[in-house]
């Protein structure tokens, strides 16, 4: 309906669903899910971290983190060790194989973005990114401010 097509929010929801579907399909080829990809990104950028801190940083329920990290560890993409100072805490570290797979996933994501956003000029893509970040930063600055 025209009333929905005129709604920015409706269009954004549909675009987000399309992007999520495309990215999930690309990730499926690597055997990872989007949360596992996010965990690898976090470890790659910030280094080894406590499981709980990764969950907080990414907004993932700490109960769900165990299964995500179990999967990454089974694929030898991360290691998990007990903190010597507090045996209740787990320190997670990305492995060399994890870094290699992350680079592969990032390339697949670049292909997905190029396919989905290829109808936009480079300037248009930059403008879209800027607008989206402005809105996200206004509503959740703790997640988006640099």
Summary keywords:
146 residues, mainly alpha, three-stranded antiparallel sheet
Brief sketch in words of this structure:
The chain is mainly alpha-helical.
User: What is the radius of gyration computed over CA atoms, rounded to a whole number of angstroms?
Assistant: 18 Å
Strand arrangement in the largest pleated sheet:
1-3-2
Average pLDDT score: 91
Strand residue percentage = 5-15%
Question: Can you count the beta strands?
Answer: 3
For the termini, the CA-CA separation is 39 Å
- Tally the helices: what do you get? 8
Largest sheet: 3 strands, antiparallel
How would you describe the overall organization of this protein?
With 146 residues, the chain is mainly α. It has eight helices and three strands. It has helices at residues 2-5, 8-28, 34-46, 51-58, 62-74, 96-117, 122-139, 141-144, and strands at 49-50, 78-82, 90-94. Strands 1-3-2 form a three-stranded antiparallel beta sheet. A hairpin with a 7-residue loop joins β2 and β3 (90-94). α2 crosses α6, α3 packs across α4 (51-58) and α3 (34-46) packs across α6 (96-117). The protein is globular. It starts with a helix and ends with a helix. The model has no long low-confidence stretch (mean pLDDT 91).
């Amino acid at each position: 309906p025209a009333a929905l097509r005129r709604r920015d929010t409706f269009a954004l929801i549909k675009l987000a669903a399309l992007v999520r579907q495309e990215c999930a399909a690309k990730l499926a080829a690597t055997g990872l899910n989007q949360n596992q990809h996010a965990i690898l990104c976090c470890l790659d950028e910030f280094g080894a971290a406590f499981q709980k801190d990764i969950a907080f940083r990414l907004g993932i329920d700490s109960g769900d983190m165990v299964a995500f990290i179990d999967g990454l560890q089974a694929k030898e993409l991360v290691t998990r060790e007990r903190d010597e100072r507090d045996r209740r805490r787990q320190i997670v570290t990305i492995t060399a194989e994890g870094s290699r797979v992350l680079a592969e996933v990032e390339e697949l994501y670049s292909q997905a973005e190029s396919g989905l956003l290829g109808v936009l000029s480079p300037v248009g893509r930059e403008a879209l990114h800027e607008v989206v970040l402005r809105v996200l930063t206004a509503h959740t600055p703790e997640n988006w401010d640099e």
